[in-house]
Write a structure and sequence with these properties.
The structure is a homodimer.
Chain A lengths: L11 H13 L5 E8 L9 E2 L3 H9 L5 H9 L5 H8 L6 E4 L5 E2 L6 E6 H32 L4 E3 L7 H13 L4 E2 L2 H7 L9 H6 L3 H12 L4 E3 L5 H12 L5 E4 L4 H14 L6 E4 L5 H6 L7 E4 L1 H4 L9 E9 L5 E3 L14 E7 L5 E8 L10 E2 L2 E5 L2 E2 L5 H18 L16 E4 L3
Parallel strand pairs in A: 6-7, 6-11, 8-9, 9-10, 10-11, 15-19
Antiparallel strand pairs in A: 1-5, 1-12, 2-4, 3-5, 3-17, 12-13, 14-15, 14-16, 17-18
Helix pairs in contact in A: 1-5, 3-4, 5-6, 6-7, 6-14, 9-10
């Protein structure tokens, strides 16, 4: 996936902390770090975890080659002892966490690292970047899927975000239930289905709308989707049907009042004998616009800006905290910052989702230091991704994306139906700590 | 910069349009495409252009190797004729545009491509991704710099955004006036100054705050910045001064009421004889929080989440439109979509910034088809980046970032002082088309 080392996707202070802790000797203390979100974005009822597979893929390339070491040495980011440590850097600990596609709530321990302080510290920035970005997109995408019901959603926001974020956003959208993406690199890397037909420029390039439609149909067949709103929509639809005939695949509407337009375009298509021609809409949709189109005769939604920017919440506010570490007498000590406005809970966490007799989720149970006492219907939430530095390859690549999408579908099924409401509200199930506060 | 081809950072439909236009022959029509924003984010008074250098760097690797072609062929994205065209793809046209770091307004033609339809079409997604992301960050960053006045701002948002967006965000922040970044890869790629010291985990790792401070000072010297709010801030400051002495470089505050805290921490530091120890604040700052800290005795601002997410506007809403193309009789025809709610102006654009006798900007003048009639104080805004496929290397690499930062400083100087107001308002100068509407 990554062809270059991922090791410099890292904040400067991770390496200065490494240097200082190598100096004090504390660098080698066995430690437990935990990634979690203190809260969901305001009014959201659940979050969707994504990014895990990308982290594990990036971990394979998280090493410091000569070029990276020369940079760190030339710019005096760290001293010679630290350079020497980084020369041999390879994560040798354990990584546990929620499956990608899983739903999470405040304080869900979505990723847990067990390693020396040094190893977990150096990985912090990269882990948070992937979790915060990808989970923000997946969380927004899942709400759009809820709003769309049975109609497919297509991810097409690449142009609205950084070119590499676009690839990750496409991947996260598919995990949360999108049907396909416009992003070719995402198709290439993760085996995702890609789709697309034509833009307004294609129509404007030709001497007339008719000439453009003829060119598209001649090249791509009558099953293609024709964009009918470059000039006049009604004339566009009539021309599309004349050119492609009754087997025209779809028309795309990209501007104007989509609810009203979809209605009369549907009637017009039916009157022209094109009952099987679908209507795709694509103009600045978000979950609310999708919901508003629920009663309109629309067949699919293309979603761009709002999806790739997390629909108002472009980052998931995950943090990564040291929660436990060994002292020199060999005992693990739970640790947490004391600041008043930022609650953290020290200690290694365990998590299950408690279900009722109808297999509906009722609580997110988090055990501190040990698993919550089991209940017949508990579903364990922690998986082991890495054991002593050895990666379980089930969690990376194209297969991992498919499994994550299935995990998401199953987890949504398990949620109370109120999870599908778009209105602002509390998390749909509460988080409860066991043996803590 | 990019070690792999950038050619698949592309929407599927760019290549299906290519295929259909190769089929109709229109692919080879000489064309003019233009990138611009129809509006600024609501209430913003100006935008800051960024991404140009990254586009030009990416253009060098925008080719289709065997692996990309095999993907496109295996997945049937395009037909054999199109694959053959892409085998030899290399942009051979011209690219003009606003300098990176330049201020822009609605309809400013920030990038103009002159080439065949085919060549400009294939580049669309990649160009928009870079412009939309990087300009969103630079535009937010510039407002933070205005709010901070003479105090330095440090970019530290990497963990809140995709790992590659983080690198581009650091670059954009520096262009808009930030002093430095925490992102090591950005330092590596673009020669940017990186900074950082320690997080709460470093304190929690050690047996006491004192032990942590001693470790940091022993390794990094007394000039370092100590994070004093892991437990009790007052005790933290006292311990920091005891450990590092009068030459302690800085203390960092990352939580609580920063205005009030900065005041008494300053008094405490002064009372302890540490008049030269600086105060750095870093807790979820945006331009408004920075402005609110204006009267507090703060020496520098570390900005994260808000910066890398564009402070409420994570994308710049740039579009990329075909504005003119040749027909078969050899004449250029201006073109524009007719949709009511999306105004576009056909025709090749030229742009100058009109200045008054005191060299203050008064208007963004855009000529359609020709340069606006010159005025002594006009400053031309279009540069030529690429000529017949040949890149002007002044616009890429570390040197380009430095020049872009200078360009931004100069352009801000030229703006009416109202540009520095944070309140919502209209664009600080109007955009006027010449020989058009």
């Amino acid at each position: 996936m990554w062809q270059q080392p991922t090791s410099l996707f890292t904040d400067h202070y991770e390496l200065t902390m490494l240097q200082a802790s190598l100096h004090s000797g504390a660098a080698h203390r066995p430690s437990v770090f935990e990634a979690f979100a203190r809260r969901l974005p305001e009014g959201r009822r659940y979050g969707v975890l994504a990014g895990t597979g990308r982290i594990l893929e990036g971990l394979k390339n998280f090493h410091f080659d000569d070029e990276q070491l020369r940079f760190l040495s030339d710019t005096k980011v760290v001293d010679a002892t630290t350079i020497k440590y980084l020369e041999n850097f390879a994560f040798s600990g354990n990584i546990h966490g929620y499956a990608e596609g899983e739903i999470y709530f405040p304080y869900s321990p979505v990723m847990i690292l067990e390693s020396t302080f040094a190893e977990a510290c150096v990985l912090e920035t990269f882990i948070l970047s992937a979790l915060n970005h990808d989970s923000a997109i997946a969380s927004a995408a899942s709400r759009m899927i809820a709003a769309a019901g049975a109609r497919p959603c297509i991810e097409m926001g690449s142009r609205r975000t950084h070119e590499e974020s676009a690839v990750a956003a496409a991947r996260a959208a598919i995990i949360a239930g999108f049907d396909s993406t416009s992003n070719l690199e995402a198709g290439h890397r993760y085996g995702l289905k890609t789709v697309g037909t034509a833009a307004h420029s294609f129509t404007l390039l030709h001497d007339s709308e008719r000439a453009a439609f003829e060119a598209q149909v001649a090249s791509m067949g009558v099953g293609t989707a024709l964009l009918v709103d470059t000039y006049d929509v009604e004339a566009g639809v009539r021309t599309a049907v004349q050119v492609a005939g009754p087997e025209l695949g779809a028309v795309r509407l990209d501007s104007g009042d989509l609810v009203e337009q979809a209605r009369w375009v549907r009637t017009l298509l039916d009157d022209l004998g094109n009952e099987n021609t679908r209507i795709m809409v694509t103009s600045d949709l978000d979950e609310y616009a999708i919901a508003a189109l629920g009663s309109a005769p629309v067949d699919s939604y293309g979603v761009g800006t709002s999806l790739v920017t997390g629909s108002g919440h472009p980052t998931a506010s995950m943090v990564y905290k040291l929660v436990s570490r060994r002292d020199d007498s060999g005992n693990f000590v739970d640790v947490a910052k004391a600041a008043k406005n930022k609650v953290s809970v020290g200690g290694r966490k365990y998590a299950v989702r408690r279900l009722n007799e109808r297999n509906r989720a009722t609580e997110e149970l988090i055990g501190v230091g040990e698993l919550p006492a089991p209940d017949a219907n508990d579903r364990p939430l922690l998986n082991t991704f890495v054991t002593n530095g050895e990666l379980d390859t089930d969690f990376i690549g194209a297969g991992a994306v498919r499994r994550a999408a299935q995990r998401h579908t199953d987890s949504i099924q398990e949620m109370p139906s109120s999870s599908r409401r778009l209105q602002r509200g509390e998390p749909v199930i509460p988080t409860r700590f066991i043996d803590s506060f």
